[in-house]
Amino acid sequence: MRVSHLxxxxxxxxxxxxxxxxxxxxxxxxxxxxxxxxxxxVVLRSGATRTLKALGEGxxxxxxxxxxxxxxxxxxxxxxxxxxPSGKRVGSVKQPRNEVGADETTLMLSxxxxxxxxxxxxxxxxxxxxxxxTGKRIGSLxxxxxWNPAGFSGDGGEMLxxxxxxxxxxxxxxxxxxxxxxDTPPQIVGFNLPEWHGDGxxxxxxxxxxxxxxxxxxxxxxxxxxxxxxxxxxxxxxxxKPAAATWxxxxxxxxxxxxxxxxxxxxxxxxxxxxxxxxxxxxPVKRAYHAGG
Length: 293
Prior knowledge:
It is a single chain. By secondary structure, the protein is mainly beta. The protein has helices at residues 5-13, 187-190; strands spanning 29-35, 39-44, 49-53, 62-64, 71-74, 80-84, 89-94, 106-109, 115-119, 127-131, 137-141, 148-152, 158-164, 168-174, 179-183, 203-205, 211-216, 222-227, 232-233, 244-247, 252-259, 262-269, 275-282, 288-290. 4% of the residues lie in helices and 43% in strands. The strands form 6 sheets. Strands 3-2-1-24 form a 4-stranded antiparallel beta sheet, with no helix packed on it. Strands 4-5-6-7 form a 4-stranded antiparallel beta sheet, with no helix packed on it. Strand 13 and strand 14 form a beta hairpin. The chain starts with a helix and ends with a strand.
């Protein structure tokens, strides 16, 4: 039976025991914080830190996988796109130098860190998808000028894309850019899909490439799940406003909530509405890139 909205809100505010992140071995990354002088400080779950020389140019020039196992960034010096902790170079990608629209550069990692999407500097070029382990290219995706990338599916096998014109449309593609599903969702879903980076809207695609979790604001804010096959929208689950969301299980969505000087990773069971805090830490003061976005 679904937990009541009030019960879920109360649960989110209650003190939980911090649970270890699923799927991340060793000491996973919590976030990477941009410091002065092209320096990036990597903060691990244990509290240990690592310092890297990295470029901070672009809308999202650093990406950390949801499980905290891998990070992608542009290395200072040769401007190459590399991964941490292996130091593996990804393709022949380099951060552009002083070109118009450089702030549009965006990196995205799949939840398990095995796939990396790179979008160039001006919004008109197609995205490129790489194997983040080998560095080899897998395929390409529509340019964000046409379709905004909203992120990888829970298993990293698909991408969710959004386009807004007279209506808001969504597409699910494979990693070579082939459209698997396309839909014009109901307004409660379509109006709240992220149409461009930084618009504050949050959505996540499940591993089945069919279910989409969407945060719906308003007087009774919460998370809904839209099924592309049945075109049904689930009951709303009351949650605090998330900054990001990722499917981390068959029926589990993990959201990141920032507020009160704290950052929490909260697991939500989308069937029951039950929640559990997976991690809780002080919110970084400087610009930071958190595990999972």
